[in-house]
């Protein structure tokens, strides 16, 4: 073999060209979009955001207006449009209703549900949370005086929503909560991205906001890869950001 031929063969081996050696794997998804749920806002994602950024991810946070499902889906899609490539879309609680529709965007490569609602087409959050076989774990969600919005009773906020957070943080969240419109709560999903995309889910072991049995039912239906967090409250992203980050990384890597 001539010297020139030998050099060409070595170069081909290094590049995986015409030698049977596979080319280098495509990089993992680096964009992550986080969608908060009802009675909260995007500020709660801080620990998850910081940990992902430290690992090299580009993290964007949606601020849901919670005035209607369409408005929240539009808000999520605006942020997805700003991503520069494949994206993991993450939704907490009501945010699951939002990402189920917004996740049909072709940039979205995987969905992550955290203590979340996972509707099928034609199902609303109200539809699912009023199923008789899955009674709600609390009766502390109230309507505003005009009857147009729901909020969590501040006096019961910590025990129902963020039991494993400090009393000070839970008190602040109770007073800064974003109310959810009755219209949004009752609006059915027009699409179900989980039917065509990989699904990951986190199931808190002590959720007093969304029935854990309902979560299991929805996650099983969506064929989600489920990570259980014993003892965690509904706001698992606050109390166990390390677990949430790990699940998001699995989704990004397709594991």
TrEMBL record:
Keywords per UniProt: Hydrolase, Signal
GO MF terms, alphabetically ordered: hydrolase activity
Domain AB hydrolase-1: start-end pairs: 32-246
Gene3D superfamilies (UniProt xref): alpha/beta hydrolase
Signal peptide limits: 1-23
Pfam families for the chain: Abhydrolase_6
Protein name from the UniProt record: Hydrolase
Organism encoding this protein: Luteibacter yeojuensis
